[in-house]
Design a protein that fits this description.
single chain; mainly beta; Lipocalin; eight-stranded antiparallel β-sheet
Length: 330
């Protein structure tokens, strides 16, 4: 009998521990199915107010390392989501916290209030207008784009033979400071990436990677969802040019970079013209023919007249890549 009670006690305690552990945010997730309940709250919400004015909201998870609890940073965006009319410059910041099966949201001044439950956000604006927003998962219009005839296929999920040091995880290529075996001059490139979910981290520790064009200029890859947008955040040309709009989707959603690059020109050892780059993030133009006159990103290779490979930076962010191809020429 004592053994039976002891067994039941262990079973109950194990079940209780498992339930508690399941309620805590994960440290890092690369699979949406294993990201936890707080991940399903995070994301983009869009809808209208009672006066038919479009409204968007960004909900970002922030987990506390001491309490192991998830809280939420919320941006209310007049006009909708970014890239679709939403204006971050006019955003209203708020905060949210779980309250049973719901998340209660309020701005610091208490003028915005809302509740998230079952994938919907309902609330009131400072003017007292009711609104209902639905959680959405956006897809880039270039996601899954097939390479045109004659394109150089760098990764199609079958193997990592075109990379030095590449690591495959679940059919995707993980950023591990790997470099393409082939180098390029003038070209167009397409690649897709998926940020890991790291709710306990902030800033540069939040799913950090980078796409180095010619192994010289870094287009930053980072979980910058919900941030203003700077040159060291997702889509920025690192330390040099910030993006025109922060188009970073939430982590664990596939995103796209489409890049047009014109290499610098040389007459012998003398450079006669600077490199020029354009970047589309999730189908939105965020860098339009930017002249790279300051030279390569720190850590990038010296600028010369030789072709350069693509590098997918590691940095511990566990970012996955897929569908990578390049079209050479102007």
């Amino acid at each position: 009998m004592k053994k039976l009670f002891a067994g039941l006690f262990i079973l109950i305690m194990t079940s209780a521990w498992a339930l508690q552990a399941a309620d805590e945010p994960v440290n890092v997730a690369i699979d949406p199915e294993k990201a936890g309940a707080d991940y399903k709250i995070q994301g983009e919400y869009v809808g209208e107010t009672a006066e038919k004015a479009k409204l968007g909201a960004e909900v970002i998870t922030r987990a506390d390392k001491k309490t192991k609890e998830a809280t939420y940073v919320v941006n209310f965006l007049p006009g909708g989501l970014r890239g679709e009319g939403g204006d971050y410059a006019k955003h209203a910041p708020a905060a949210g916290k779980a309250d049973g099966s719901k998340v209660a949201i309020a701005s610091k001044d208490g003028k915005w209030t809302a509740t998230i439950e079952s994938g919907k956000m309902t609330g009131k604006t400072p003017e007292g207008q009711a609104f209902t927003l639905n959680r959405v998962v956006r897809k880039s219009k270039t996601e899954g784009q097939k390479p045109p005839e004659g394109a150089v296929i760098l990764f199609d999920g079958k193997n990592n033979d075109e990379w030095k040091g590449g690591k495959m995880v679940d059919g995707n290529l993980e950023g591990t400071d790997c470099r393409s075996k082939k180098g390029f001059k003038d070209h167009k490139a397409h690649l897709e990436f998926r940020l890991s979910y790291m709710p306990y981290e902030t800033g540069q520790g939040r799913s950090n990677s980078g796409v180095y064009v010619q192994d010289r200029w870094e287009v930053q890859v980072l979980d910058s969802f919900g941030l203003k947008g700077e040159n060291n955040e997702c889509g920025g040309i690192y330390s040099q040019f910030k993006q025109s709009v922060n188009m970073c989707y939430p982590p664990l959603q596939w995103q796209t970079y489409d890049i047009e690059f014109k290499a610098a020109k040389f007459d012998g050892d003398k450079k006669t013209s600077d490199a020029v780059i354009s970047v589309w993030h999730n189908g939105v133009l965020i860098h339009d023919k930017v002249v790279l006159s300051k030279g390569p990103t720190g850590g990038g290779q010296k600028e010369t007249d030789t072709p350069g490979p693509y590098q997918l930076q590691g940095h511990g962010g566990r970012v996955q890549y897929r569908n990578i191809w390049v079209v050479e020429g102007k």
